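FAQ

Q: What does a record look like?
A: Structure on top, sequence underneath. For example:
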């Protein structure tokens, strides 16, 4: 959830580390810090709050010099946000500094042990035990001391360490937390996220669990868990820093909303040839499976709920969708006839990783849908489909979600073709509708220039509801989440047919209800629910297809989207809801790209 970065080379490390931390701000954090190797000492700066506060401290310290260093943005897990608890952490003897993403589960045990030896701790964090244990284990061999230290750690970590006694050398280690090594010429880097590296290098090494990297300006050596040197591939990144910049937009979220037509095109076009869906990555025999289980967290789970409806409808096979944080603990019933689809934008979501491991142990085949190439989930899965949506910086996902749903729809049509549960005509029609999703996404953006005015009208609702039926309900879950996570308003999504089972008691005069009305088979049923809430004084904002005239007689305000196949409607109807959430958050003065308490990639439980 937080971020780490490091640099060793011939240039001053401070400005490079600070620039890397700025690139990592989107991941969510509450404090930041950097440490550099000085003349036989480690110099450190830390600040609570924004990276800009750290920059101010750095600019006030002209002697903060060093060509090798590490940096961190912290999201508090152990101990309150404070300068003391911020990373990096320094060993009691001043010889080592460490930055760490993840959680050390046995930190209390190690801390108590070290305190018995007279070692004093300054922070409340689990991370400090790493650097104190490292200093305790150090007998002149940096690598050996680190290997011994990490062998004691339970939990998850991506670690970067520098030593006052080893100028120009950084060690980095990984277990269940993302870590990349950036390869340059006369300088090398590490980071938890490619965005921190791509302005300096596009050549990276993907670290695997249990590996340790020794990084100097002229070389990168990677060792396995036994300390043996191993050969690692260097991967070239095919996007540049412009992809991770705002390009004139006020917020990354708006930029990414507007990028959805192009992102959908990147997901769809390469996989359709001669009007057929082609997955070169898949060697799956769908006839082998008697059920499908989809698992994910947050917006990816909502994409899975849409996917459940599409796959079940087209493939006529039972499909379940469940949040990964529940699935991982409930001993699910599955075997080698179960296909598990795991979905994650980052490919590093901790609960999803744990759930997929549980499923694999039971014999299930795992197909991953992720955006980040080389991520942990991509590596762990039996098969992987990349969304190719490009970097997504705003914490609240937009193009990540829509490309996930599009890819699930493509998979459903592909699988139905293999299972022969779809006619030739229906297959051809679905492929055409999928190919038209990018232009329809653009049309949804063009149609809704009034969203800002509607946000100005409704922004002060402190509690509101989203309702829908069937695929509309699945989309309502995501629409509600978008609003609550960036505007901090209480918002809940309900299956419209459940209103009378308790929720309608909360409807009172002036309450806003957002009604999704794009699943036309049940349109009249949804209209009935709209009438029920209006009878109790609610104001209704509806989302409906172009050409639907009757909705204007029922709703107070209407957002329109282009007509598409009912199974694909959630890809399009979410777009005006994303815009609505954005403008409501803006009216309320919220930090849209970095909502409070949230992080882009949830890498801890």
């Amino acid at each position: 959830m937080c971020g780490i970065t490091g640099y060793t080379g011939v240039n001053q490390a401070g400005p490079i580390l600070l620039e890397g931390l700025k690139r990592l701000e989107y991941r969510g954090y509450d404090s930041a810090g950097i440490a550099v190797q000085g003349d036989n000492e480690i110099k450190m700066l830390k600040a609570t709050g924004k990276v800009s506060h750290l920059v101010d401290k750095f600019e006030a310290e002209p002697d903060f010099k060093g060509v090798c260093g590490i940096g961190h943005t912290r999201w508090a897990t152990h101990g309150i946000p404070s300068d003391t608890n911020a990373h990096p952490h320094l060993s009691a003897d001043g010889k080592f500094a460490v930055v760490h993403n993840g959680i050390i589960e046995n930190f209390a045990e190690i801390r108590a042990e070290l305190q018995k030896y007279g070692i004093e701790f300054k922070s409340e964090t689990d991370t400090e035990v790493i650097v104190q244990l490292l200093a305790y284990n150090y007998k002149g061999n940096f690598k050996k001391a680190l290997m011994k230290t990490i062998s004691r750690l339970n939990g998850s970590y991506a670690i970067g360490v520098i030593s006052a006694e080893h100028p120009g050398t950084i060690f980095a280690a990984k277990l269940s937390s993302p870590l990349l090594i950036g390869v340059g010429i006369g300088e090398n880097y590490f980071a938890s996220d490619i965005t921190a590296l791509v302005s300096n290098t596009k050549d990276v090494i993907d670290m695997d669990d249990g590996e340790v990297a020794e990084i100097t300006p002229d070389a990168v050596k990677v060792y396995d868990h036994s300390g043996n040197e191993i050969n690692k591939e260097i991967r070239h990144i095919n996007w540049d820093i412009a992809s991770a910049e705002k390009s004139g937009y006020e917020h990354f979220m708006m930029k990414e909303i507007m990028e959805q037509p192009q992102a959908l095109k990147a997901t769809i076009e390469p996989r359709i040839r001669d009007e057929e869906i082609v997955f070169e990555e898949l060697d799956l025999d769908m006839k082998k499976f008697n059920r499908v289980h989809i698992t994910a967290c947050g917006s990816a789970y909502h994409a899975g709920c849409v996917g459940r409806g599409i796959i079940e409808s087209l493939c006529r096979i039972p499909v379940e969708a469940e949040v990964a944080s529940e699935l991982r603990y409930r001993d699910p019933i599955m075997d080698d006839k179960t296909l598990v689809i795991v979905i994650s934008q980052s490919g590093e979501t901790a609960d999803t990783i744990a759930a997929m491991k549980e499923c694999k142990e039971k014999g299930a085949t795992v197909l991953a849908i992720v955006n980040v190439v080389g991520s942990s989930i991509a590596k762990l899965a039996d098969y992987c489909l990349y969304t190719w949506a490009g970097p997504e910086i705003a914490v609240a996902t937009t193009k990540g979600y829509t490309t996930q749903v599009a890819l699930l729809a493509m998979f459903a049509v592909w699988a139905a073709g293999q299972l022969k549960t779809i006619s030739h005509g229906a297959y051809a029609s679905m492929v055409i509708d999928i190919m038209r999703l990018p232009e329809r996404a653009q049309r949804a953006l063009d149609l809704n220039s009034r969203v800002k005015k509607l946000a100005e009208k409704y922004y002060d609702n402190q509690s509101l509801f989203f309702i829908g039926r069937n695929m509309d309900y699945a989309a309502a879950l995501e629409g509600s989440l978008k609003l609550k996570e960036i505007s901090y308003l209480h918002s809940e999504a309900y299956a419209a047919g459940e209103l009378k089972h308790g929720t309608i008691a909360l409807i009172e005069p002036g309450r806003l209800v957002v009604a999704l009305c794009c699943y036309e088979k049940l349109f009249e049923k949804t209209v009935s629910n709209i009438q029920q809430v209006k009878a109790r004084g609610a104001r209704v904002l509806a989302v409906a297809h172009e050409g639907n005239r009757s909705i204007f007689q029922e709703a107070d305000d209407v957002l329109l989207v282009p007509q598409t196949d009912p199974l694909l409607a959630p890809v399009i109807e979410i777009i005006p809801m994303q815009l609505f959430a954005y403008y409501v958050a803006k009216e309320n003065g919220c930090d849209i790209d970095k909502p409070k308490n949230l992080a882009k990639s949830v890498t801890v439980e």
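Q: Is there anything notable about this one?
A: The CA atoms of residues 271 and 279 lie 6 Å apart.
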